[in-house]
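Need the bound structure for S-adenosylmethionine, inputs here:
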Amino acid sequence: MKLERVLQFAKTLIEKTVVPGDIVVDATLGNGHDTLFLANLVGDEGKVYGFDIQEQAVLNSQARLEEHHVVHRAVLFQEGHEKLQQFIPLFEHGKIKAAIFNLGYLPGSDKAIVTKPDTTILAIEQLLNMMTPEAIIVLVIYHGHPEGAIEKDQLMEYVKQLDQKEARVLLYQFLNQQNDPPFIVAIEKN
Ligand code: SAM
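Answer from helper R.:
Posting the output first, comments after.
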């Protein structure tokens, strides 16, 4: 058996949860790789709501979706994910099936623009209110840079205290690798 690598495992979790027609969230658009992955899963009847604070990230993601002829499956906002409850239309609240956060900074871009624990946690709390039972939030946590290490500590503290009646929290991490590779925390709403 070959253990699934971290980034592949994030996709597997989402693939096992999302079916055509679902409503999902890409909380950190970046270059739109995850957005495209999600758009392919939800099909023409579903919708991906995407967020990033950088204009370039929104433009890059839009271009990637256009290139693959699935741009109509997504609605992208140049807004922080901590505002997702405000920006995702009311009629979708309660219907969200999955969300992915690829934390940290956008490779090849300004490394000073990073996700922050406070806003990440606000977004998770909003999602937990807006998701269906058995929906999943996948956090890919990059802790090899200074802000990432701080974000990791605060996020771990936060997810560990989530009430087990509300959600189950999974950690997927290789423990003996150099250079602090990313790991996954997945939150399944009960
Ligand atoms: N998923 C992306 C992809 O497939 O290319 C990579 C995401 S990158 C590691 C992290 C992104 O989070 C950056 O583009 C950054 O601008 C964005 N970001 C930082 N703070 C944010 C916030 N509060 N809300 C939404 N996005 C944010």
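Comments: The helical segments are 6-17, 33-42, 55-67, 84-87, 117-130, 146-160. Strands lie at 23-26, 47-51, 74-77, 96-102, 131-141, 167-172, 183-189.
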